[in-house]
Amino acid sequence: MAGLSTRAAGLAALALLAFAAAANGASRAGAGERASPGPAAASAAVVDGYVSLARDRVNARRGPGLEHRVDWVYTRRGLPLKLLGESGPWRRVRDPDGAETWILSDYLAPALTVYVRGDALGSTALRRRADGTAPVAAYLGRGLVARLEACAGDYRLLKVSGAQGWAHKDELWGADACAHS
Predict the structure, then answer these.
(1) For the chain, what is the total number of helices (H) and then of strands (E)?
(2) Can you tell me the distance from the alpha carbon of 7 to that of 56, in angstroms, rounded to the nearest whole number?
(3) 176 vs 156: which has the higher pLDDT
(4) Taking the chain, what is the end-to-end CA distance rounded to the nearest angstrom?
């Protein structure tokens, strides 16, 4: 947002907050909603134990197999998940809320993403450089999912809605996945 007036920069930051608020809807839907299985694909590659959801609707099962109950349905493509284990084509994962479940690997992607866990809407600063004193390019809201581009010390380069900047890893979930550092 370099070169923008203070008002334009404020409007751009507000637009990111509005996007975050819209994206902050439920990550999980009730068990009554089921996603139909898609075509088989190669198992998701794992980078530092993190993967992300490859689809908009993904069943979260109690155990590794179609015979196990669907506890909920994830409705958030790109949501980062920590890999905990595997059983055949099934992966045991933990989501940003701490819930653990089993997901078929066909529904997982190697794309590295992070989940903004700031204290309140707009509390996480997206800075122009990997430095706590660098100018703020935008503020990110809790629940926003952003693509992890690179790592520098305690800062992570994020890309979201056309904006790019650095956020401190302590304000992000999934920020330990630094394959690009």
Answers:
(1) 1, 15
(2) 35
(3) 156
(4) 24
pLDDT of amino acid 16 = 44
Beta bridge partners of 109: 52
Higher pLDDT, 87 or 14: 87
SS3 139: strand
Read off the pTM. 0.74
User: Tokens 């999980």 correspond to what residue?
Assistant: 28
Is the four-CA dihedral 33, 107, 64, 46 of positive or negative sign? negative
Length of the chain (residues): 181
Strands (E) located in 62-142 = 70-74, 80-87, 90-94, 100-104, 108-109, 113-116, 124-127, 136-140
Give per-residue pLDDT as tens, 43-71.
444 545 999 999 999 999 999 999 999 99
Residue 17 has a CB neighbour count (10 Å cut-off) of 17
